Amino acid sequence: MERAKQAFAKVPEVTLTFWIIKIAATTLGETGGDALSMSMNLGYLISTLIFAAVFIVAVTMQVRANRFHPVYYWTTIIATTTVGTTLADFADRSLGIGYAGGSIILLALLLVSLVLWHRVTGSVSISTIVSPKAEAFYWLTIMFSQTLGTALGDWTADSAGFGYLGAGLIFGGLLLIVVAAHYFTGVSRTLLFWSAFILTRPLGAVVGDFLDKPLANGGLAMNRYSASVALVTFIVVCASLFRQRPAQVAH
């Protein structure tokens, strides 16, 4: 039991602060990913390889830790958003799969990850992450959800023609429905958690695009480096002022 508590202590309690930081992290993933691939002209593939290396280091530190460490956890989350951004852009644009095709493929991978996780451990609830195997599924699922969110956000804003503000309202509205379901229905909390987790990524993607894309394309044309630094600062301040506790193990 002590080992289980230590393993689970690495996952933060899901509170309002958690979701605020998560949305900021996903927005950072978009501005940070675009900063390397576009502003620095490294391209999607090279940027993906760089961010993938950062993710491998971050997730290794996170998995090896014996307790919840905010720096390790949120660094890993941010790494999944940045590599998810450039990986989705590479698949959708460089490989020519397209936003719709990319979204469908990534949704399938996400569902496969969740199904395998459930088959192997018996649950996909974060309250049952008590082993390295479950944590590995946790981060794999997060990686797929972050990458899917980028493709889905671009698909809604660009291909579907809703624009960044319209797409932001759509995903924001869907998140409000999830929140309402949490407070007013008996829908599975695990289902609602993963629904919200997935939806925050396209919301962050369209907000990030709205901040840094040219005015002619419906964006605010903000400097990607400045926007990324501002988001990192915001995340650090939130994590410092509103200290998160590790979640509790389900008995």
TrEMBL record:
The chain crosses the membrane at residues 42-59, 71-91, 97-117, 162-184, 191-211, 223-242. This is Membrane protein. Keywords: Membrane, Transmembrane, Transmembrane helix. It comes from the Bacteria. It comes from Caballeronia grimmiae.
